[in-house]
Amino acid sequence: LLNLSGEPRLSENNQLIPLSNYGLKSMSMGYLVGESAPVVWRGLMVMKALQQLLHEVHWDGLDILVLDLPPGTGDTQLTITQQIELSGAVIVSTPQDIALKDAIKGINMFEKMKIPVLGMVQNMSLFTCPGCGAKTHVFGGGEEEGEGGHGIGVERACKKHGIQFLGDVPLHPKICDDADRGKPTVVSEPKSERAEAYRAIAEKVGKEIGLF
User: Fold this and answer.
1) Looking at beta carbons, which pairs linking 177-183 to residues 24 or more positions away fall under 8 Å?
2) Is the pLDDT assigned to residue 30 strictly greater than 60?
3) Taking a C-beta distance cutoff of 8 angstroms, is the pair 102, 130 a contact?
4) In the predicted structure, residue 27 carries a pLDDT above the cut 70
């Protein structure tokens, strides 16, 4: 979401300098390979890349480092939990059962590795028609499943596993547009309900790790 241009440069001590925008720094394998180049790597190469992103980037005075991981409980997640001290993990899931099953596997993995699970975020929770205003639970979790139909799928999983429900991110076309334009929703429409949803989640996570 950072609308970055150019390629990472090297610092004086040969560390990669992260790209930045809106006061945020970012580093990704996507910056280091061709835009259309597939990253078809076996485990050892993935682990080497992970080492570089963690230890060979000139992060320089961060308040917090967020690692955006793909779904799953494989080598990448296991290596991270073993190599660096984590303040906690945030699990993101859509409401449908098949997505929640993967999310719960993640919860169990982090708990087994003694990593605090700070809570869960429900993504794409509710779609509001821009024309008629009708609300639709595209991925389930509607009113027929519980009082108000708000976040029922992920909230139920949170209650079952004793973790905090951090909030909902709605299914809205402008969130996708903002991502494609590289301009975060909290910047493009700071007073929108969508931006408020992101801020509320960030505040809860910040309090959990002592940032606020």
Assistant:
1) 178/1, 179/1, 181/3, 182/1, 182/2, 182/3, 182/4, 182/21, 183/1, 183/3
2) yes
3) no
4) yes
180 token code pair:
């494609």
Sequence-ordered list of residues with C-beta below 8 angstroms from that of 34, at least 6 positions apart, any chain:
none
Token digits of residue 33 = 């390979």
- Of 17, 3, 97, 87, nearest to 57 by C-alpha is 17
Q: What are phi and psi of 137, to 5 degrees?
A: -90, 85
Give per-residue pLDDT as tens, 192-202: 999 999 999 99
Structure tokens at 77: 């997640």
124-145: b or e for each residue (b if 16 or more CB lie within 10 Å)? Answer: bbbbeeeeeeeeebebbbbeee
Q: Tell which phi-psi region holds residue 140, choosing left (phi > 0), alpha (psi between -120 and 50) or beta.
A: left
Rounded (10°) CA dihedral 11, 14, 15, 18: 40
Phi/psi at 170 (5° precision)? -70, 160
